[in-house]
Amino acid sequence: MRSFLQQVFFDNTVRDYLVLVVAILLILLFKRYLSRYIATTFFRLLHKASWNIGKEEFVNLLRGPIHVFLVLSVVFFMLDKMNFPSFLQFKIHRIPFQDIVESSGKAIIIVTFIWLLLRLIDFVALTLQQKADIAQGISANQLVVFFKDFLKVILVFIGILLLIRFTLNKDIAPLLAGFGIVGAALALSARESLENLIASFIIFFDKPFFPGDLVKVQQITGTVERIGLRSTRIRTDQKTYVTVPNKQMVDSILDNLTLRTQRRGFLSLEISGATPYELVQQLIAGIRKILQQQNENVQTSSVVLSDITRNSFVIQVEYFTGDIAMEAFNNIREEMNLSIIQLMEESKVKLAGREQEMVVAQA
């Protein structure tokens, strides 16, 4: 039996082949339990960070990449302990076939490991998205999506560098220097896009507004429907869809109308300068009485004879309601204006310049 195990086939003994087969069978039999154990260990580490994550969902997500990674690691580790067959000692385009096989094995291991890390990023991002939906809203959700994609790109880039370094045996320092120069050139050529990207970070972290807020910026008033990485989409009061670069949303004076606590009504009356003192006094008192009758809608108000001009007396009426719907506010404002018009007709108070007298002079 021992002599049989010592027989050599393709530069390796029968014993070496049996050890390889047993190792592969063992890893195939226990890969499910090992992968679950490794995934559970990862879960415990993340759970200690106070993340509200589901164990089964986490394990199921990582089980596939861990299966492949374990099997390939064991297979390539055992093959590395064996002698490369002499009949395969040939070259392809001056490259030894053994080097091609070893480089291919390293490439597969690196790709599988990157795949595992990508799955881990997906799960962490999914968990943070669920927390953002509950606690912080849509803008935080979009920030999680961006950083998920950003980290994936960085991870894939690192994976490519690892493949170049360990499979092609190339020095990656010149490549990094070249990427730095190319990155600087791209940054200069895409300066405006980078400014908008940085502005999007400011919006995400500073949170001056959220999707669904009614805002006014640069003479544009509307509801924010989407906050992107380059621009913000606003549905205006005319139902048009306006795209505003994020840089302008940050640099311009922005009025978040959703955060107001009251709505303001204002009326400037210019009555005729020929109006007697008693009528002016009666008009002011009457307007104040109208405002008092609206005490369930009007929270604060003021009626002031603010100015006396050459041809008119200026009475300014200002009042504030609660943060009610625009339609309700317009109804209150219309009712106030009609009541003031009726009061002026009853008091026989005329607006300045309403009646003009034309005199025709004869030569």
Question: How would you describe what is shown here?
Answer:
- It is a single chain.
- The chain has 363 residues and is an alpha+beta fold.
- Helices cover 58% and strands 18% of the residues.
- It is built from ten helices and twelve strands.
- A hairpin with a 2-residue loop joins β3 (91-92) and β4 (95-96).
- α3 (55-80) runs antiparallel to α4 and α9 packs antiparallel against α10.
- The N and C termini lie far apart (145 Å).
- Number of DSSP helices? 10
Number of beta strands: 12
- End-to-end separation in angstroms reads 145 Å
SSE-based structural type: alpha+beta
The average pLDDT is 78
The largest sheet has its strands arranged as 8-7-6-5-9
Stretches where pLDDT is under 50 for at least 5 consecutive residues are: 358-363
Largest sheet: 5 strands, antiparallel
Molecular shape: elongated
Strand content: 15-25%
Write down the secondary-structure element order.
Answer: HEEHHEEHHHHEEEEHEEHEEH
Helix content: 55-70%
- Computed CA radius of gyration, to the nearest angstrom: 39 Å
Write the layout of secondary structure elements.
Elements (H helix, E strand, L loop, with lengths): L1 H4 L2 E2 L2 E2 H34 L7 H26 L10 E2 L2 E2 H39 L2 H30 L5 H17 L1 H16 L7 E4 L2 E8 L3 E6 L4 E5 H6 L2 E3 L5 E11 L4 H17 L4 E11 L3 E11 L3 H22 L16
Antiparallel strand pairs: 1-2, 3-4, 5-6, 5-9, 6-7, 7-8, 10-12, 11-12
Helix pairs in contact: 2-3, 3-4, 4-5, 9-10
